[in-house]
Design a protein that fits this description.
The chain is mainly α and 117 residues long. The chain contains five helices and no strands. Helix 1 runs parallel beside helix 2, helix 2 packs across helix 4 (94-103) and helix 4 packs across helix 5. The longest helix has 38 residues, at 32-69. It is rod-shaped.
């Protein structure tokens, strides 16, 4: 019997997997079986950490706002600020408020004093 040469489809699939794992180290970038395991693990971690990143940034914004609000001029808390913002129907999200707090604290103090009146 003559020898049958395999097609290129399996090689093309393995090449795509190797391109994904090009930055991995050691056998994780060379051995096909290990590459597939590491690819699966990397994609699971990426999916999980996208949600975690959103939580971490929200915590960071809240922390920045609370630290600025509890400064020398204003002796209130973050929760009072958010409560009064919603009561006055000023829809500023935490990211924008944190950016204002970092770049221009006086502006945040003015917003806070207007809300408290």
């Amino acid at each position: 019997m003559t020898r049958i040469r395999r097609g290129y489809i399996a090689r093309r699939r393995r090449t795509k997997i190797r391109l994904f794992a090009a930055s991995f180290q050691g056998a994780h970038s060379r051995i096909t079986r290990t590459i597939t395991q590491q690819k699966l693990r990397a994609l699971v971690s990426a999916h999980r950490d996208r949600d975690k990143q959103k939580r971490d940034f929200r915590r960071l914004w809240i922390l920045r706002l609370n630290s600025v609000i509890r400064g020398n001029r204003v002796s209130h808390s973050y929760s009072k600020l958010i409560y009064n913002l919603q009561k006055k129907q000023l829809f500023l999200n935490r990211k924008i408020l944190a950016q204002i707090a970092i770049s221009n604290r006086n502006c945040l103090y003015i917003i806070f004093n207007e809300i408290m009146k």
